[in-house]
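Human: I would love a firmer grasp of how sequence relates to backbone shape in proteins. Could you go through the record with me and say what the backbone is doing? Here is the record:
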Amino acid sequence: MGSPKQKSTYYTSEKIAYARRNIAKYEWARRMKDAAVQEAESFMANGMEFLWKSVTPQTLPRGIRVHMELGSPVTGAQFLKEYGTYGWQGNPLTEPWKLTDPSSGFTFPTNDFGAYYESGLDEHGIFRKGLADPRYLVNELYPDKGASWGVDDGFGWIDEEGQKWTFIAYYNHWYLWYGAGALFPKALKAFREAYLYTGEMKYAAPGIVLLDRIADVYPDMDSSVYKWDDCYANSHGLTGKGKAIGCIWEPGLVWEFIAAYDAFFPAMEDPNVAAFLSDKASRYRLSNPKNSPHDVRRNSEDGIVRQVFPSIKEGQIRGNFGMHQRALAMAAVVLDDPEASKEWVEWILSTGGLVYEPELRVTGGNVLSTLVDEVDRDGFGNEASPTYNTIWLDQSKAVAEILEQIDPASDSNLYRHVKFKKFFDSRYPLIVHRNYTPTIGDTGKSGNPLIIGTRAEYILAYEKYKEPVYAQYAHFLNGSRIEGIQGSIFSEDPEQITRDIASVIEEHGPMKFPSRHLSGYGFVSLSEETDDKKEDSMRGLWMYYGRNTGHGHRDTLNIGLHAFGMDLMPDNGYPETADYAPKRLQWVHNTISHNTVVVNESKQNESWVGIPHHYDGESMVKLIDVEAPRVYPLTTLYRRTVAFIRADDTHSYAVDIFRVKGGQNHHYSFHGGEGEVSVTGLNLQKQATGTYAGPDIAFIGKIGETAKNYQGSGFQHLYNVERDDAPSDSFSVDWAIKDTWGVRGKEDSASVHLRLTMLGQVHEAAIADGQPPQVPGNPKSLKYMIAKRSGEQLESRFLSVIEPYKNNRFIESIESVPIIALNGHHTADSETAAVKIVLRSGRTDYVVNSIHPDVRYKVDDKFDFQGFFGVISEMDGGYTYGYLNDGVMLSKADGTGIRRDKGRIEGKITDFTKEISFHNTLQIEIDGGTDHDIHKGQWIFVKNNGKRNAAYEIKSAVKRSETSWELGIGDITLIRGYRNPNDFAEGFVYDVQENDSFTIPIIEEYAGSRK
């Protein structure tokens, strides 16, 4: 190995000087210092000898699995629901080597493992099971249960039923090496910060001792020898790889070690530290004598920093995108070796990844190709789950910070890459109702309020890009206050950002959460937010049509709705376990558990993103229309159109039109929040036994397939079934929504309802219970309504009205009305829809839709319609509102209403931005010209090859001639990926091409009496 570096390179002397000056100047900085000192003092109380001896060598296994039933007065499922997946409690400072079952109070292991461990240390201070004294393997805590009950020798205890309990492995993982209460990373961080903030050697010394001992044992660590099947369940992405812990979480752990080495670097000159460590080296016959500061530094450098690169390449340190790259970037800047550091940075940027042949290895950091190939144009990684996607920014911003520090002007500076910048745009656009991030995929819990993103992230984003929205979101995340916003304690002027953000809020106002459409990610919110911000007047509907793989669910075209402060249609959220557990893959991830349609009793196929055809988030009628052709290849149409229509300042209702062509049976699945349901128009008969899969199939019964490859219906997870095998053509299901998460305070949440009225023929309707993940806070069950249609070459149009209300309904009646094609045309019933909705206010809305916008129809024998979507409102004998999207006619015979020559602007793409850029344009040629201007806020839908969609919001429009325009689409790139990720010079693949056709639907609405 090379010689140790000459100075601290991450925690530079300049940064440290700023921090100490800020502590003297600002109260918030003093509080940070005081908190670090207080925590450091708590770890110092046990002394350096305790810290040195606490470091466990690799011959003691690490794991996270402990069964939940032992000695508990509750079942395993109840334990999981009340205390969480990792609910066992421990404290390495006060009760070393012990775990407590919080439900029963029992402590494990029941033997004196500390004495047993001490007796098994060899001449190098390494635990050897063969040396350990077996007299310490006796149950001392509960002798009445037998001498061997609950005894753990470090490798688990097998009870009388043959179950293995890994108490010490669990303790070793969660209370020593990794976790919120883990001694080593927590103590190192406390010592590091206390030393940086104060410069006092008393905080550095114990940190150096702890770090040095970790460096002694870290090179030989290999968690792969402890197998998942033996109950050592580390997080390793099913590769089995890891070092101190599983490879997924290892990058975060080693980052703490490297940061500590850099911080403690100058303090390693202290002769007392070297004397202590030299004594240990001599006593335990260590290869490094540690007689000098040089030797002490070399031990940490060789034992930790230089271990990172080979361990990453071997897959022992490898997490989600950004994790191991962050660890290696930190190692590169801290090592400060001209040759090695340069090699590591180049590797971080180079194309590569995890490969299995001829053996498992990682071939490159893959940062640049991942940004271009995997991160969509809206800034989301391939995780689908919003919370998993946050990891990509959480980790890669540290990579960006370090690479910028190394060379701010080079292409390795990620802040100069538009896809990296878009990471910051992947938080706030998802928020609905100001308090909720939809629980898409493995995200959150079933209906809990959830906001993603941190104040620090958006302070950083504003500092780098100066976009007002980042300042507004930082302000929002800070409780909509300026107080408490400041830069890093290591900044030269940390309160400059305070002044800057205050100016933004004064000029632009606080954060707003309007409707959003993220066509790259596949998400739409249709939101109503009044200026008074009263909670009961805010409401929003969302649809997800993006990736349904990885940490996503097979839920394409899933919808949700928020009103009255609550999530009224909560998704499942995060499963009990993120592995191949049957419940996860048969139910939580399956299509049936979401608000979408199941075809042929099977899970959806994998899909990147659907194809939107229409969107309007601004009008009184908010609209989204998306097709998903890839989720069920046997279908020729799988398309959902949802309108969210404002009834008054407090209420909106949704009209949901889901069309499916192909297959032999279609199941429309819909569920509300926790609460009882009542029905109108259904004659339900209770099914005495079994599940929705059948009376002979038990709840979570055997399925004949492994969970890993399961593509079935998941119907066996629906229980307490009631059916009507001949429902009427109009029926309603009403959920009395319970305030599961206590968001309405003392108000009676039972007054909040969600009502679904289904119109049209279905062959069966059923009500059943479905169980969300049983984790703390989640409901025990949710009520599902399943509407089924069956037949050969089946065509279905599921038409429903979704009505959130409080206390009393605002809708008087809902009915289908006739829609008849004119001029000799014929269209199938499934291709049109017309609904009459009478509001209690006296207003009557007619809502009409056709997927044949070139056909003219007569609606309810009252008015003519030609277009895609229309709404016309009557009150007091006159027409008070009209809305037409992608159409030419919505009017009475006397001409009252909307009539125009064109419903859309059509043409071809002639050119577009072909490089990675923050400013992207489309050059278009319009067919035959148009009298309609193209303007900011419209959407252009390009018909491309269908592999991904090409739908873009127009941010600017410049007319170049009578038929040609230049459309700006901002920082939304048109690049799909590299042609060859191993040779960037070969250029890109694009989402559009010259001569691709496009449409820009024209939207028109009017308000006011038109008699």
